[in-house]
Amino acid sequence: MENDVASLIYSFAQLEAFTAVAEHGSLMKAASKLGKDRTTLRDLIDFLEDGLGYALFLREGRSLRLTPEGEQLQRQAHLLMRQVKAFEAFARSVPDSATQDIALVYDPFTPRAFLQALIATLAAKKIRLSLTSASRDEAEAMLANGQADLGICQARNRSVGNEMEWRALGAIEMDFYAATTLFAEVASPVALLDLSLVPQVIMHAASDEPVARRLQISGHTLFTNELEMLRGLLEKGCGWGFLPTHLQAARWQNVKRLHTEVGSQGIGQTMVTIWKPGSDKRGLINETLSLLPSLWKDSAL
């Protein structure tokens, strides 16, 4: 049969009194430091010693000196007090630093200036934003299983059913870009036949078939959804791109806008915001949705 061991009952006030007296060597100095009555500190230490069953201090006139047991306990009490103080500081800061989280999944064509503006706006509201670039199918899957709260995607011109809600966000203008040497021997304007014979860089995953198919002209494609990799492929003449003008690809090294027979007037892609109805974060989602139109407009797209 196991022996019953009585639990030691002590309070934060007793540990505080003990560590203060141990540090200052007197009740008077410790009481002054803590802003408490000397008698109160003495009672607290007496109660702690009674609970422990051994003395913590040797009394020498008005001074107090730690006993060997007291010296051993002081080290542990000091560590515990530091943890308590850290907890107290954290607990007091919670109302001022409380944050909310929202996860956004976005199409690779989403303007970076718009995303940066959204990050800054939500940060000012103490809302932490997680961001993931993904295909439309991946975005819908993340929304469905709760990995994301909002999605910004290219419109598919089809119903999203009862599983998702959507709202139009805006449009992005598109144009053709390639390395300066890629079509150097082709007459301008470049014909669609010429484009179809040269590899095309598509800034979407190969699995994102509906979007990729809509953007694809060439029979040979290279896929990437990372902006710097796209830039590298175009700069090295690996292929041409049908890309958003906000990427400013014409500013890249040895890359120019292609003058094609289809022109670029009126060519664009509609972007929509999608989300799963009934989310526990619907208040936060609605607040974020209300911010998006003005941020989109102000991002100089």
Automatic annotation (TrEMBL):
UniProt feature coiled coil, ranges: none
SUPFAM superfamilies, A to Z: Periplasmic binding protein-like II, Winged helix' DNA-binding domain
Pfam families noted in UniProt: HTH_1 (PF00126), LysR_substrate (PF03466)
Biological source species: Enterobacter intestinihominis
Name under which the protein is recorded: LysR family transcriptional regulator
Upper taxonomic lineage: Bacteria, Pseudomonadati, Pseudomonadota, Gammaproteobacteria, Enterobacterales
InterPro entries associated with the record: LysR_HTH_N, LysR_subst-bd, WH-like_DNA-bd_sf, WH_DNA-bd_sf
Sequence similarity: Belongs to the LysR transcriptional regulatory family.
Keyword DNA-binding: yes
Residue intervals passing through the bilayer: none
Matches recorded under Gene3D superfamilies: 3.40.190.290, Winged helix-like DNA-binding domain superfamily/Winged helix DNA-binding domain
Keywords: DNA-binding, Transcription, Transcription regulation
Annotated ranges, domain HTH lysR-type: 10-67
